[in-house]
Amino acid sequence: MKGYVFDGPGHGAWREVAEPALQDATDVIVRVRTTTICGTDLHILKGDVPEVAAGTTLGHEAVGDVVETGSAVHGVRPGDRVLLSCISACGRCRYCREAAYGQCTGGGGWILGHLVHGTQAQYVRVPFADLSLHPLTEAVRDEDAVLLSDIYPTGYEVGVLNGTVRPGDTVVVVGAGPVGLATVATARLFSPRRIVAVDLAPSRLDAAQAVGADTRCLASEDPERLVEDVTGGLGADVAVEAVGIPQTFESCARMVRPGGHVANVGVHGEPATLHLEQLWIRDVTLTTGLVDTRTTPLLLDMLADGRLPTAPLVTHRFALDEAEAAYDVFARPDDTGALKVVLHS
Predict the structure, then answer these.
(1) Alpha carbon 271 to chain centroid distance?
(2) pTM over 0.90
(3) In this structure, which of 27, 49, 155, 214 has its CB flanked by the most CB atoms within 10 Å?
(4) Calpha distance 50→230 (Å, rounded)
């Protein structure tokens, strides 16, 4: 079979790879129907995630069909159409017992496309299948469901829930890429007073407005002054960093009000300065986090009921064997307008 393989910093290719086989009784093999590319995959290709070994098939998001199950798997069977979670959960360790699956110490956590071969291939082995797969109903399309592998639970859990968004809040989301857009869409569920979306690209701000942003601001147009103006000088109740670079993190820390919350969602590849000389007196809460995907069943129900906007997030579609072209488009969003790039088998 073939898959998209990380061959060291700056190098990735769609090429022949070994077919996966069951290794543990809790494994399943899934034939990939739909997968997608994440900003984290680009970080891996840049060398920002050194734990990823050369030769690893990338990808941690997919919808597919179960083709083989281990003897200890009880939740799915061959022929089932399933959503693959970006997080694998052993179900036994302290963190899994607390539903903090992203911190699993029993061999799970973020492993697909990271520590084991991932989903950007024709077939994938999924460890801990009973807690890491979600059967899908006919009411949910593959292209919509794949957005719940990672970006929707990440935006909801790490941005909205960690940020403690409440009714009447002013929420600023810096970065209107896929995860930022999912944050905007799920923040709306809590009836904030306003959501301000900040990005470099007008096309991404258009998408943010389509999924629920009230105010849009180009990064070049002084978003800090805008937030100050719309809050009467107070600052944002919640500032969500969804880019992963020092400048945007530090900007969020400046935009948040005293007693407010900075929720970092972005994947950072270099240090950012935490200005405690300014923040120590302001009662600001800062959270970081890897998604746990504990809310995926809830989000799937909402998706089936038409409560989550998905169409504005998918901008490009490719065949699975066009993965190299898909990566090229996804890596140049300023030129291509790419948000979520979906690959279908």
Answers:
(1) 21
(2) yes
(3) 155
(4) 42
